[in-house]
Specification:
- The chain is mostly helical.
- Among the domains are: 2-31, no CATH class; 141-166, no CATH class; 174-255, no CATH class.
- Helix content is 50%, strand content 7%.
- It is built from 11 helices and 8 strands.
- The strands form 4 sheets. The protein has a two-stranded antiparallel ribbon with strand order 1-2. It has a two-stranded parallel sheet with strand order 3-4.
- Strand 1 (14-15) and strand 2 form a beta hairpin.
- Helix 8 packs parallel to helix 11 (233-248) and helix 9 (207-218) runs antiparallel to helix 11 (233-248).
Amino acid sequence: MINQRCKKAQISRMVLSDDTTLDNAKSVHLGASQYFWDFLSTSCEVVQADLSSLIDPVILNVENNMLCAEPTEMEVKEALFQFLSKAIWGQTVIQKLVSHEQGAFVSGRSIFENITLAQEMVHTFHKKIWGGQKISREKSVIFSSKLINPTRKRELLRVTGFKECHFPVIYLGAALVTGRLTSRIIDPLVEEIRKKVAGWKFQLLSQGGRLILLRHVLSSLPLHILLVINAPKVTLDLINSILANFLWGEVEGKRK
């Protein structure tokens, strides 16, 4: 059985494309080798189909022409200015170009404030005379920084004749401080409210009268100050407690 299968698997005769007949094993072997050598070594030109028409264009022809065109002078200027602004802002160069006196670059401050101040200053130039108020040396003081030269500070005090003062200080009813505003600085305002409440006759006022008094008299006292300063929460809670105690008739835990 095995010999029969081997005989059936053998090629005893082969006809080439030019009608040449190979009828022995050696010629069949050489003819087969030469055929596959010629077939595999021959390069065939493959024509590939153009599939670009099947893909939808993402960029239109007008946009493509605009991107491929040379940039204009204005576009170059805008790109250069944007690059310089970003480069300067992220480096220490901005501190050398802009002085500390430029209030428009202060964080949290609007540039419109400086514009308003500049307009007011320009309007004063058209006045014929300035105010005739005389500066009082007794009422005027000088506030100086901790970084000022001691010799220069003494010279300023000697020339002006003013006294030296330190923060915090009360100006127009509001506390001027350097740094964080604490409840201790606003204690005089709280005590003033407490004294006014203690001086009112609770029994002579109805609850509606006390409410009107709190709204139109007492509340107007701290409003103009609390609107311009960032008062601590503990101070606001204390003022609300004083007002509530007066409204309900209690002072220091006792009924008035």
